[in-house]
Design goal:
homodimer; alpha+beta; 7-stranded antiparallel sheet; 5-stranded antiparallel sheet; 37% helix
């Protein structure tokens, strides 16, 4: 991001903002890191939204430099606060404005847009910082007795309003203390951690297993969502998340070996056998419950050998989205092992990536022409393999063979390296762009090969029905039966309500096209109105029965999560927005 | 099995038995196939049980040549029978003795021993032969209205009393008509079938996909349990079964893409996305419900390329069970791809297999001696790989490298071929041996690497505490985190009650050792008393809540399945046995 602009450069906010400011809460990620668009992207934005340099002379959104101040009293009686202090210690129960606001929202643009406007619809009454599983169990038991709503804040990167404390009550901020290794079992390749452990900390622990646990070798979690740096292991599990390397390592439901929850009806603990025939799958019932059945405390995760040296990077250009899909399907169905990162971009995303990575100005441009590849048609495929040396090599060889068969043109591993550079810090772009009213957000769903083209066409058609909308699509979690489809949209938009309608329209389009409502973002409160329609009434009634079993008084993440108390909330949703 | 004996040969029942006889019901498998012990096994039996040739001069158990006659009237009123006939047609509702008895029992030795004694504890009042999903839905709806118990008979090879009609009512015999392909989707590699389709028919359909569906190539289900020939797809799913090639293709829960059930509260139908983030896993709730929530009607299964030419067979001998386990673990954790068949035998099984396959009389014997391998210590490992050519080759290469590292001695692929020959017809031995009072049955469970030795030791110790007991163990479904342990025991025993106590003792030993109660046989009614203890009360209560939701009047496979109505049944269990 450091390359100087040749022309005019807007005054991107470069991270200088006061502690305790609104910006410190809505901004993505580390306080010390920012990312501004490179000049190529800036040019695209100006052109797409028909803006000129002058437009970028002043901020269009409040940059949020003011100190956080709320006018919302804590409604919990002293007795309850006292009880929590008894369980956790005085300093680990907070009711000040900043602590409460800092766990009130996740990272959908609807959250950010509200925070930019200092619009605080919901905050918890108190923030609790547990240290141990037993403390979480005591808190949940007390809240069940007193009917106090319980929310959980893990990494804070939810894009589904999953963490929003619609009913007040308490939010358990897991970041501070609930982030320790409980057990490391090298024989079984299973590590048990507290739910608040962050992605990078888990990876650091596993990479350093030799030093930390006298292990024989270094390991990896294999789980790297784009939100990686600000995601927690607990968040991965309760939302059924997926990492960018999931095609090889599996999504989180493939990686989890065991789970433990504190629920209103007691502790739920599963065993750690990944396959068994002992009735319905208890782990699969708890996973994806998004805090509505109980608070996830301990998680046993499978881990993998850390093999950075066996990685084989590749990237190819295909003539069209249809051909790219065919090649992708053949790679996944050919039984030669699955690549780890596997990303096929549609023509619009390919065009933008080519400009972002300066491919469009490289000699490759001429080769595309010679091949007959056309702008707005060709599709970029990139990825890399993992695993044992021979496995990784054979897998990459198979990719090469199939790409060649489908007329793909190799771009070597350089494009993949460029993508890797930005894979975790691209979200930082959101804030710098948003200062000028340009917002970017993402949506995603599961499809199978047979309905992929239709879902892509329908959802894209909805997005593009809004003039001046960048809508990029890719698949990035791929299976023999299908894949996810992932949309990144960039729009010039300043009204949170307009955003919400646009977002709802995309969800509508996903549902109507027959795809699943989410591949790995989860449902939260924002996607919840569509869940029953997506699963069907009889299937959804099973979830209702489970909710009633675990949480008869509806204190666990209440206010619409997974749609359980939606009727009331939907009214709120529709009635309370300015 | 045709090699003539050198010495005395007992008059093994070679399949000549009347149609409609008791033997035709309790006998394993095809009416036209039998298998008698080869001389080496006969010698082992004589030696182990201290019997002589004279003992084998006459049958010790009733060979069951009599025609089936029951003195148990059908208790269903004419009105109900009439309604079923209206739904299915007159000829597809049967109340005769033979039809009823033929679906009354599965294939645990407890079932066989009871049938040998003409002891009929339970039969359904009527047997129904559905043709379509809609008919099954009508039957379940009618039974729910009239509170008539509903049982399902798929392939009939349950070893858990899963199909036993403890409460009378109706049994749906799926074999006759409910066995058709509903949809074949080559693009997604998903086939949808009716639940009564048998293993061999599914495989035949997939192998012949080019001819039947104008597919581009031949496919395989990848699912071959030992009961393969007398198992149904529906049975695989409701019990969470596994095939002998599961280490590569996955167990049934990995293979299923979608399920549809007829339940008392209506149809439950899941989508066909194998990974998604839309709340708790509905498919995982239904799978393993063993008929207690509803009747499985349609199943969408993933399928795989049929690649018999890429198979690489291998077999190795290791110095000990501990070393064999270490090698097995390394193979599964080395990330070079998983072998398809993967079978490591403990010393007792190895000894018997060596004699069965005549290895003990081959020149290999001398090589073992030279290597310092000892009888009762060395362990046989065999298997083969599947998949794309390069993948399969690399996988076998990795197996070779690791086996060598752990001092394994290659026995080439010949031993594997010998095992393959018997893999599906070994169960036929049960009947010929049982005519002389020698019974063989199996038990299995899931373990992780860290508790494998202890579980093996404890369960084996229990089995061997009974004098003159052959107890062989192997692992045959293997994971990076652990494996199953599978016990085959052979005893000379004639009292069903003694068998039941012995069986219960093994289950007790499994539970006390901390393993799961089943890796792939399921729970049924016979393992059910241990399930709540194994899962723990809070976890088991989730299953209770689900049962109440789906089947408030307890008509679906009632009488103890999964332990839901065990209190009453256990009394029965303990009180009704002679």
């Amino acid at each position: 991001m450091s390359k100087p602009y040749k022309g005019f450069e807007p005054k991107w906010v470069r991270g200088e903002y006061p502690l305790n400011s609104w910006r410190s809460i809505f901004k993505w990620g580390s306080p010390f890191e920012i990312k501004a668009p490179k000049e190529s992207l800036y040019k695209i934005l100006k052109k797409t939204f028909e803006l000129d340099d002058q437009f970028f002379n002043e901020y269009k959104e409040d940059p949020g430099f003011d100190e956080v101040k709320l006018d919302i009293p804590c409604k919990l009686p002293d007795e309850d606060i006292g009880e929590f202090k008894k369980i956790l210690g005085d300093e680990f129960v907070k009711t000040d404005d900043y602590s409460r606001l800092s766990v009130a929202y996740g990272k959908t643009m609807y959250d950010i847009m509200r925070l930019r406007r200092k619009r605080v619809d919901n905050v918890p009454d108190a923030v609790l910082y547990p240290d141990t599983k037993e403390q979480v169990e005591q808190i949940v038991a007390y809240c069940a007795k007193k009917k106090i709503p319980v929310y959980v804040y893990g990494g804070g990167s939810s894009v589904t309003r999953g963490v929003e404390c619609i009913k007040g009550g308490v939010s358990l901020d897991m970041r501070l203390r609930f982030n320790k290794v409980i057990n490391f079992n090298e024989t079984d390749q299973i590590i048990t951690v507290q739910a608040g452990m962050s992605g990078p900390k888990l990876e650091e622990v596993l990479n350093n297993a030799v030093k930390l646990f006298s292990a024989k070798r270094a390991y990896t979690s294999g789980h790297f969502p784009q939100s990686y740096e600000y995601s927690s292991v607990g968040g991965w599990v309760v939302t059924r998340g997926a990492g960018q390397n999931s095609t090889y390592y599996g999504v989180i439901s493939d990686i989890v070996a065991g789970q433990e929850y504190a629920t209103p009806i007691g502790v739920i603990k599963t065993d750690q056998y990944t396959r068994k025939a002992t009735g319905p799958d208890i782990g699969g019932i708890m996973m994806g419950s998004e805090g509505t059945f109980g608070v996830l405390t301990h998680i046993a995760l499978r881990f993998f050998r850390h093999t950075p040296k066996t990685i084989k990077r590749f990237s190819y250009m295909f003539a069209s989205w249809e051909i790219g899909q065919q090649a992708a399907r053949e790679i996944m169905q050919s039984e030669a092992g699955y690549p780890s990162v596997f990303r096929l971009s549609d023509p619009e995303e390919t065009g933008l990536m080519m400009r972002m990575y300066n491919i469009d100005e490289s000699p490759l441009r001429h080769l595309f022409k010679m091949k007959g590849f056309k702008d707005n048609e060709m599709c970029l495929y990139l990825g890399f393999t993992n695993g044992e040396k021979g496995f990784s090599k054979n897998c990459a060889k198979n990719v090469r063979r199939i790409c060649k068969k489908f007329g793909g043109m190799s771009l070597t591993g350089i494009v993949t390296k460029a993508w890797e550079k930005g894979r975790f810090n691209d979200p930082y772009l959101r804030d710098t762009m948003h200062d000028f009213g340009i917002i970017t957000d993402t949506m995603e769903c599961s499809v199978n090969w047979s309905n992929m083209s239709q879902v892509h066409r329908d959802v894209r058609a909805y997005c593009k029905s809004r003039p001046k909308t960048i809508c990029m699509t890719h698949m990035s979690h791929v299976y023999p039966q299908g894949a996810n489809l992932y949309w990144i949209f960039i729009v010039h938009m300043t009204d949170p309500e307009e955003f919400r309608k646009f977002h709802a329209g995309i969800l509508d389009a996903i549902q109507k096209s027959g795809a699943s409502m989410s591949h790995h973002h989860g449902i939260g409160k924002m996607f919840a109105p569509w869940l029953e329609g997506s699963l069907g009434k009889n299937q959804y009634d099973i979830l209702r029965a489970l909710k009633k079993h675990f949480d008869p008084d509806n204190i666990m993440n209440p206010g619409g999560t997974l749609g359980f108390d939606l009727a009331e909330e939907e009214k709120r949703f529709l009635g309370c927005v300015v």
